[in-house]
Amino acid sequence: MKAWLNFSPSIVNKRVIADLIKNYNINFNILKANITPKGGKMLIEINGKEAEEGIKFLEEAGIELQPITRVVKKDEDKCIDCGACVSLCPVTAIKIEEDWGVEVDDELCIGCGFCTYSCPMKAIKIIE
Ligand code: SF4
Ligand code: SF4
Question: What is the pLDDT of residue 33?
Answer without folding.
Answer: 92
